[in-house]
Every structure is written in structure tokens, then in C-alpha cells.
């Protein structure tokens, strides 16, 4: 890693990015069918099979838009969850007209191989819709209570949220841990030669919202306490830290990414000090650098806090090439954790001492996980370049960007990498996603 001035950092980003394309705002992410056709399954001795689930088309008056929105959102959510195989409705043997929320032709669902069955009913009114759903376990011929199965009054604009809530409840009923649909992914997109904007996406790729667009290069978004986004912006001419629209740092040093501590009291930032990057603690209220965590002749970049706030993962080139290191939050106990690979970058701390990172394998970048003992596992392989990974808030998924389709898209994968899905239909110069509630 070499020292990069403000313009040089943007130039590197521009050189690595694909040509500018339209960043139109899609109403929703890929369909459930498209997602499943694009699924990547790694087969191994401990591979977890997807549970076959049949989702009956909701009963509702013809032409009710809420039915289509709810149906598509629910199917897509359960496909993306990595727990279910949503069965093709063309294979259904049951007659929809004969099925109600409480009347079920069990033999028909058994014969199509469904382990679980979902039925929903949507009743519109002038101002809102009543939504009722039920989950059944087909072999046992019984219903399973689900949180969020009853919504007596749902405004049209909240239909997708109601579907997310029910999907989260279904996941909890089956796995014991609630789903996280409704959580948000912040990501940087190149929109001009010297411009990058920040946007937020739902976990399923829909609901795109522009967070920062100011005509400058805005990079390295990280969700902060209170739902705002911490990021590096070149708006002042030299890269500085911002929280939302508020500028935090105000000096001549170059800030190369930062992250809030879990308790929100501190920011750990990579900052150019005397010709190379060191890690420092910044007071988020004043922007003051209060402590150096590293002070070496090497570069230390991309800090990431452990969930308990005791450790910080980062990249250092002190071994001659980038490797993942950890250091105590007080600056003590620095050590290297990746002993394999010649170019390991973008570490992100997750649960149980796991750190996800991007590593070069030959001439391609792939996603790996390393624990604090140095044991490395692979999540991607032979699927183009994959980089900039980040954990989901519950540690059950990883978000990253991949050019496996020829141009960069945002993907999510289950924590073991067995199931991987694109969540953006458009291809753009996506980079450095971060996942938060």
C-alpha cells in the first residue's frame, strides 16, 4: 500500500470501477424465481438442504395491488433467507378455490413435496387492507403460530413492511431466530468521473433511498448509532469524516475510512499521519483525535470493531503485503491473524470472533472468514471477483459486491457461503456495503 493523496484515491476508485451507467431507482429487487435460478449452492458433507415451502397465491379481490406487492415480497424474502426452496406454483396440485385459511387439502401438498405451506388472505377497504396469513407444517398437518400473521389495517405504502414482518416470523418459527428483513444496506455507487453517492437498500434489494449526493466522492459508509451513516467525503477537497450532513473532522489530514465503537462513544479512523496511515480514536462530538492506536512506518487501514468493543480488526502492510491484524481497543496486543494469502483486505468483525475479509486468489478476489486462531474458511470461489464483505446485524449473512455477471452487483450470502443471491438488478460501480438495522 502506498500513500494516496485525495485526488489519487479518487483516481484509483475511478480506475477500478466500471463505466458509468444509469442508477435508476428500481421499485424492487429481483423476483423470487430469478433469485432461485441464480442461486449458488456449495455442496459439502455438512450442507444444509433448503426446506421446500409452498406459498399459495393470496386470496383477494381481482386487481388488488397490495396482493401482488405482498405476494412478491414474501416469496422473495423466503428465497433470500437461505432456509427455504419456494416451490413453483406450476407444480401445485391443490385447487386454490377450494383452499381457505383453515381448509387444507393435505394430500395435494404432500404430493408436491411441500414441508411447509403458507396461505394469505387480503381484504381491502377504502383506506387500508386487512392481511391474514397462516403457516402450516404439511407432514404433521398442523398450523404453526407466527408473529406478524395478522395485520387488521395496513396502509398501501406499508404492505411490503407487513410482508417482511410475516417473513421474519416464519423464519423464527422454523429456526428459532427471527429474520432481519427490513434491515438496511448502505453502499457507495460511482455516478460520475469524480463522484460517488451513498444509497440505502432493503435486504431484498428494494426500497432504494439516496443518503448522500453532493457532487463529490463519498465512500466507506458505516451505519452509526441512531441510524445515520458515517462516511469519508472529498467535499472539502481533502477526505474528511461526516455523519449524515454534519462534518466531524476539520483538519488537513486525510481520513481513509472509520467506524463507530459499538457503544457509540468513539470513532476508530484510519488517518494519514506523516506520510502513512495510522489508526486513531476520534471524539465524535468534537472531531478531535484523542489517541493513536498505532504509530508505525507502515500503513494501517479499514478498522472494524468487534461486537463487544474490545478489539479492532484492520489491515497492515508491515509484512510486506496487506494482511489482517487485530489490536485491543486501548492500543495493546496488536497481532496478525491471517497467515495465508498475499493480499488480504477489507476485514469486518462479526460474531464469535469471526472476521470476514477479501483475499486475492491468483488474479481474482474472493471472500474468506478467519477466526482469532487464524483458521480460514472460504465463502466464494470461481465466481468472478468478490470484494468488500460485511456481516449482517445477526451474523447469519454476508453482503458483498461481485462482478461474476460481468459488472458489479450487490450480493448476499448465508454465513457459510452455501447460498448466494444478487439483490440488485442493475449493475453499477457498487462498493463497500455496510449492513445495519
What does this structure look like?
The chain is mainly beta and 437 residues long. The chain has two domains: 6-28 and 183-436, TolB, C-terminal domain (Neuraminidase, 6 Propeller); 32-175, TolB, N-terminal domain (Rossmann fold, 3-Layer(aba) Sandwich), CATH 3.40.50. The chain is 13% helix and 39% strand. It contains five helices and 31 strands. Strands 2, 3, 4, 5, 6 and 7 form a six-stranded mixed β-sheet that branches. A hairpin with a 5-residue loop joins strand 11 (218-223) and strand 12 (229-233). The protein is elongated. The two termini are 33 Å apart. Residues 1-30 and 34-46 have low confidence and may be disordered.
Radius of gyration: 23 Å
Total discrete domains:
2
Could you name the CATH class of the largest domain? Mainly Beta
What proportion strand?
35-45%
- What's the overall average pLDDT, rounded? 89
Low-confidence stretches: 1-30, 34-46
Determine the fraction of residues in helical runs and give it as a percent range: 10-25%
The general outline is: elongated
Q: What is CATH's topology name of the largest domain?
A: Neuraminidase
Could you name the key traits of this structure?
5-stranded antiparallel β-sheet; mainly beta; 437 residues; 6-stranded mixed β-sheet
Care to give the gist of this entry?
The protein has 437 residues and is mainly beta.
Secondary structure topology:
Layout: H1 6-16, H2 32-37, E1 40-41, E2 51-55, H3 65-80, E3 84-86, H4 106-111, E4 116-124, E5 129-137, E6 142-144, E7 150-154, H5 159-175, E8 184-192, E9 195-202, E10 209-212, E11 218-223, E12 229-233, E13 240-243, E14 246-247, E15 255-260, E16 267-273, E17 276-282, E18 289-292, E19 300-305, E20 311-316, E21 323-328, E22 335-336, E23 344-349, E24 355-361, E25 364-370, E26 376-378, E27 386-391, E28 397-402, E29 409-414, E30 419-422, E31 429-436
Parallel strand pairs: 2-3, 2-4
Antiparallel strand pairs: 1-30, 4-5, 5-6, 5-7, 8-9, 8-31, 9-10, 11-12, 12-13, 13-14, 15-16, 16-17, 17-18, 19-20, 20-21, 21-22, 23-24, 24-25, 25-26, 27-28, 28-29, 29-30
Helix pairs in contact: 3-5
